[in-house]
Specification:
The chain has helices at residues 7-11, 32-45, 57-60, 79-85, 91-104, 115-121, 138-145, 160-172, 198-205, 224-231, 258-275, 287-292, 328-331; strands at residues 19-25, 49-54, 107-112, 128-130, 151-154, 178-183, 210-215, 236-240, 296-299, 314-317. It is an alpha/beta fold and 351 residues long. Strands 3-2-1-8-7-6-5-4 form an 8-stranded parallel β-sheet. A two-stranded antiparallel sheet has the order 9-10.
Amino acid sequence: MIILKTINEIVKGNSNDIYLIAEAGVNHDGSIDNAKKLIEEAASAGADAIKFQSYKAGKLASKNSPSYWDLSKQPITSQYELFTKYDSFGAPEYIELAEHAKKVGIDFMSTPFDLDAAEFLNDLMPAFKIASADLTNHPFLKKLANYNKPLILSTGASTIGEIESAVRVIEEAGNKNIALLHCVLSYPTQHEDAHLNMIKHIKTVFPQYTVGYSDHTFPDDSMVSLTTAALLGAKIIEKHFTLDKTLKGNDHFHSMDPSDVRTFINNMNKILPLLGKNYKEPLEAEKNAIKFARRSLVANVHISKGEEITEEMITWKRPGTGISPIDYDKVIGRLARVDIKEDDILTWDMI
């Protein structure tokens, strides 16, 4: 697809293209075959990266951690209980999945939720994607920064001050390859809660860093939320990915599927060429219009040689090959050097 670029180029700001992450998360439902199928379908649809989540329930949540998601879609009320359902993969499985991703031609990523996961994932990924919930986990951010890979940091439920603190921790560790993703930490995010204009705010406050968007809204047929985010300046876009939105489970219901990926990419392939330059100047395609659609000063009557030119004697007509109306005041009061016929286009050698 024409928007394909390496994540390193995107994070460093060396590309104006879009990098799409298909967030498989734990939508493999504990099956390595399902995970491989997700990789294959994401690659086939045109995503730039497939991403999973690497955690062990006992390291991520206490047994007393309550839910914070829509219980009508996911009825489990304990974070620990939910994470236990999906934490069966370890280093061997992720190594196998990374190799499979390389085989089918898509970047492999997995968000680490603990230091052990970060250690074995480091050699498998081009960048670390950090969850919103770890934005205030400064010791963890420092450890990840020390791997000297690009860090893609979601900013859900955070203040600008908290983002600034997180960025400072990463920078002080010697890593300035940072991307900041607007995100709403609500599953699912209602459209009125998406607040995509926050992308522009983050971009204004952190102009030195690439900005993006991690989406949790319900996908629509036109992929409006992702497309709008891209138009607002998001260069990295992440959304949960599934092969079947009707499946029961943690994230299937608000995920995009391969058809949605293709829709978004089709949108971008049409829209990005339309955006073009971000500064105003005449274009090559406009040269003929400049010459023939603009106006020149034209004799309104016959003007005899030596006659002083008055306002009544001239008008303005197409084409724009003569004296521009910009210079109207410079022409008034001058003398005609030659006889000028009615409807002649005035040129400087005539006056």
